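Sample intake sheet
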Amino acid sequence: MNMEKKKYYSYKTFYPKEIVGTYTSVYGEVFTDLELLSDAELEELGFYPIELPEGLYKILNNEGKYPPPEYWTHSYDWYRPTMEFIVKERTLEEVQNIIDYPLFWEDFSETNAYYRIREASMNSLPVNTVATELISLFMEARNNNIKVNKIQNCLDIIFANVQFTAEELQEIQEIFVGTGMNHRYTINLPNAS
């Protein structure tokens, strides 16, 4: 199935958008039925076709729950004077600053692995203590109070003391990578039960 690639247009040098339905410019101009016009007709109105960098195209058209890898590795800044994107490779520090802690915790707390940790915490005071601390650390991280070493330490203790199934470990890994956690933290995945 070969789907046609979406087209993006810059109106009078503004950030490119896909033209669908009604378009309202920053000047309050309203355009309708633009998708019926040719590129030449669109240019007469001030809409210029823009070729998006492949990584940005993937980000804007991502249908998965988590962003594609390009989201974590590159930034895409629109440069109006030349109507082009400046693509920059993100530094590790920049990537670490966009880790999605709230989404990680939201998704992780709905996994079977999380329920396994809760179950283990009922039978083990050390696991209970660390699990409680980890919850608190993620609540603080949601408010941009990130204690990297403490989070890593809690993760290390939990993965050393809780036995997960292969499916649970896969679930954890997917969320870990999807939210960018893998760019700052490591999880030592033991053999699954």
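Comment: The chain has nine helices and seven strands. The chain has a mean pLDDT of 91.
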